[in-house]
Design brief:
Blueprint (H helix, E strand, L loop, with lengths): L1 E6 L5 E5 L4 H10 L6 E5 L5 H12 L3 E5 L4 E5 L10 H6 L7 H8 L1 E5 L12 H9 L3 E5 L4 E5 L8 E3 L5 H11 L5 E5 L5 H12 L3 E3 L5 E5 L8 E3 L4 H13 L3 E5 L7 H9 L3 E5 L2 E5 L9 E3 L11 H8 L6 E4 L8 H8 L5 E3 L2 E4 L9 E3 L3 H13 L3 E5 L2 H6 L3 H6 L4 E6 L1
Parallel strand pairs: 2-14, 3-13, 9-10, 17-18, 21-22
Antiparallel strand pairs: 1-22, 1-23, 3-5, 4-5, 6-8, 7-8, 10-12, 11-12, 14-16, 15-16, 18-20, 19-20
Helix pairs in contact: 1-2, 1-7, 4-6, 5-6, 6-7, 8-10, 8-12, 10-12, 11-12
Bound molecules: ligand EPZ.
Amino acid sequence: MAKFLVENRGPLHGEVTISGSKNSVLPIMAATLLSDDECTILDVPALRDVEVMCEILESVGATVEKDYPSGKITIGAGNKLKNETPPDLVKRMRASILTMGPLLARDGSARAALPGGCAIGARPIDLHLKGFEIMGATIDYEEKQGYVIAKTDGRLHGGRIYLDYPSVGATENIMSAAALADGTTIIENVAQEPEIVDLANYLNKMGARVKGAGTDVIKIEGVEHLHGTTHHVIPDRIETGTFMVAAAITRGNVLVKNVVPDHVRPVIAKLTECGCVVEEEPEGLRVRGDVNQLVGTDIKTLPYPGFPTDMQSPFMAFLTTVHGVSTVTETVFENRYMHITELNRMGAGIMIEGKSAIVPGDAKLHGAQVVSTDLRAGAALVLAGLTADGQTEIAEIRHIERGYSEFAEKLKGLGASIERVEN
Ligand code: EPZ
């Protein structure tokens, strides 16, 4: 298994260019199944998760042409598709469940292995299935095999769906299915993430009629046919935030390019509260951690536009190094504190009190052998290693490589000491 060896080489300097968004490209790739025509997606990041989604699309019968150096993928779903995603691929990547809505809408049935929970929580799909049922599908479970099957005689029909929680995946799956339904679907209390807006823009370029993406209510007027299109994926706001924090934790001065500042307002606000200087320049966001003494703040993760749960662990790593106590409260997932044990192995001294983590700050982190438990926790450990005394060895970096393309190369380009070694 591969590891990262990270050493403290002082403040990061220079500029880094952000890749396309993992959490935007995955639902868009799934939505290509809604059309018989070829669809081309540009600015696709070179990620393990993208590879897995390519395998899933091919496994149901789509053709996938990848031109990675240019970040271009062309997907053709003109043939008769199989309605089932391979269980081993579902287990490898939860986002594969996003093919259910398109397969159900297009061919009237979708059979998938229930995605298992993962390190950060149970991650059920009840809200996805609730939406499909309201649009006319019947849902059956094959308990023994752990499969779920959604079926409909004829076309799905429109309906009014209230999401008990603004689930990103449920919003994406239901929106994609509703695009081909007969009639109008209104989804209330939807996720408002930029990735939802990107998917809605993609669907509308295919001929769908989606309105309201980015607000808490989305209205979709179903159409009979969706045609192919070409689409540029938005930049990855979590990769953006991660490199902003890399500049802050090393007290550096970094220009983060190919960003949408509006997508990272909570991270800009919180870094500024801690004393960092964040300025919008023509080419991107300049983040400086070398101007003022940096101090603690409080973080509470919430659905967009709140502070993103995916930035909780990288930001917590940074808070261990500033002056003064910070409180971090995770509200989106029930078990997203696995990185605390690993950060404490490096001397962070974080305590959990109820649902919150208390970060004392002023930690003199030291290198240690640590393990990445999910992709954002892994990134957090790398950031901590950039500022720790001695060498930090981070194992299980396959998690990190699922969601960050060329992570080590980009950090090296900013002056970091990080080597990828095979066991
Ligand atoms: C997406 O996951 C992202 N993944 C996650 O990013 C991100 O952390 C999450 O949204 C929240 O922003 C992709 O987009 C591929 P949810 P998703 O459905 O769709 C509960 C990363 O690091 N829930 O919004 O699975 C669920 O258990 C990953 O890039 C239900 O109860 O997230 C969780 O507590 C990690 N029933 C909460 O909602 C459902 O039917 C948020 O889940 C669905 C979700």
